[in-house]
Amino acid sequence: MKLIIAMIQPHKLTDVKKALFDAEIHKMTVTNALGCGQQKGFTETYRGVLYEVNLLKKVRLEIAVNDEFADATIKAIIRGAKTGNIGDGKIMVLDLSECIRIRTGELGKDAIG
Ligand SMILES: Nc1ncnc2c1ncn2[C@@H]1O[C@H](COP(=O)(O)OP(=O)(O)OP(=O)(O)O)[C@@H](O)[C@H]1O
Ligand SMILES: [Mg+2]
Asked: N or C: which end of the chain has fewer CB within 10 A?
């Protein structure tokens, strides 16, 4: 199992949700977040110096999937989120050791799907 965490631009959430839906991925957690990447939250430098970190509004997606759905999930996020501009976002893929459905006690791929 994989836990896919994506940081995307908030205005791309609708497109990403649609791309995920089209790929038959319907389970997700979405959180408002603050963050910055390699531009430190700025698109320009002041006298050539980036001297401060500026946190920008981002949306964080968390999607837990069985291994065979990881590629399709990643591709769908990219399809929905990519504009080609800085700040398009980042996807992190983590190995997920367990998933438990609280109601039934199911584990692993029975619980995740
Ligand atoms: N190394 C990182 N660790 C944790 N969060 C990160 C990291 N890199 C990016 N993020 C998160 O992802 C968001 C989007 O990052 P962003 O797309 O700006 O990445 P980037 O590396 O600066 O690429 P680009 O040059 O395309 O902008 C950031 O606002 C931050 O929330
Ligand atoms: Mg950036």
From this structure: C
Distance (angstroms) between ligand 1 centre and the Cα of 44 equals 16
CA separation for the pair 50, 102 (Å, rounded): 47
Q: pTM score, two decimals?
A: 0.92
CATH classification of the domain holding 91: 3.30.70.120
pLDDT at 47 over 80: no
- For ligand 1, say whether the CB of 89 is within 6 Å of any of its atoms: yes
Nearest to 56 by CA among 90, 29, 84: 90
Domain carrying residue 68? 2-42+50-112
Q: What spacing in Å lies between the alpha carbon of 100 and ligand 2's midpoint? A: 35
Residue 37 Cβ < 6 Å to ligand 1 = yes
Residue 51 has what pLDDT?
58
